[in-house]
Design brief:
It is a single chain. By secondary structure, the protein is α+β, with helices and mostly antiparallel strands. It is built from 2 helices and 9 strands. An 8-stranded antiparallel barrel has the order 1-2-3-4-5-7-8-9. Strand 3 and strand 4 form a beta hairpin. The longest helix is centred in the first third of the chain and has 43 residues. About 6% of the residues have low confidence.
């Protein structure tokens, strides 16, 4: 009798623990299903998408505020304007040049985020004719630069940008009236250069998918981004 009683006690205790853990697993599964359903509802709901997008932009915009002002040496905002000589790849040309403007903001003294606005002109003059044709490339590229603070005056940097290149064909200074002569391509651009005080010099190459690739060496001036006054 004692042996049977012990067996019944062991079986009852095993059944109790089995049912307890089974109920615990089932409750966990129900909770997980509810969480997944709520997440799916939030993602599928238009208002929740807007709230998520606004929250993401808010965090992105306010991320630079996480950097302490005491850690900075230079002011966080500057504008770089420059012009330079352009070398197109596999394109016969008489001369080519580019104009460039780029507002930049620094998350730290080392990382700068900018938007490069550039117009590159590649001019060709046909043989035995007085007219000419030119290819204009308008590009908009967000850029991320890493700058090494060697001293307060000298800062070499490397960068990478990715964006759009719009090509337009001109004859004798007027745009050709045909839609096929205007195309927009995607591309990216690595660059290397340095700044000395307010002088900027850089070399870059533009890789364009399905478009004319070109290199450029440019020199320009920096407005802003100077030393932060200690007082």
């Amino acid at each position: 009798m004692n042996g049977q009683g012990d067996d019944r006690f062991v079986n009852a205790r095993s059944y109790y623990f089995y049912t307890m853990f089974a109920c615990f697993d089932e409750s966990q599964m129900k909770a997980s299903d509810q969480i997944v359903n709520q997440l799916q509802f939030c993602l599928n709901h238009t208002k929740m998408k807007k709230i998520f997008a606004i929250s993401f932009l808010f965090v992105l915009v306010n991320f630079p505020l996480l950097v302490k002002a005491d850690d900075r040496i230079f002011k966080p905002f500057k504008i770089v304007t420059s012009m330079g000589y352009v070398v197109p790849k596999n394109l016969v040309h008489d001369y080519a040049f580019a104009f460039h403007m780029e507002p930049k903001y620094a998350f730290t003294d080392n990382f700068w985020l900018g938007i490069r606005l550039e117009t590159a002109l590649m001019v060709q003059k046909p043989i035995l004719q007085d007219d000419y044709q030119a290819i204009a490339v308008f590009s908009i590229l967000p850029f991320l630069d890493y700058s090494v603070v060697v001293s307060e005056k000298f800062r070499p940097f490397v960068g990478l940008g990715f964006g759009t290149y719009t090509y337009r064909l001109f004859y004798d200074g007027s745009e050709k009236d045909n839609a096929k002569f205007t195309e927009t391509k995607m591309g990216f651009c690595p660059r290397i250069g340095f700044e000395i005080n307010n002088f900027n010099l850089s070399f870059e190459h533009n890789f364009v998918n399905g478009g004319t690739q070109y290199s450029a060496i440019r020199a320009g001036f920096v407005m802003g981004g100077g030393l932060i006054s200690p007082y």
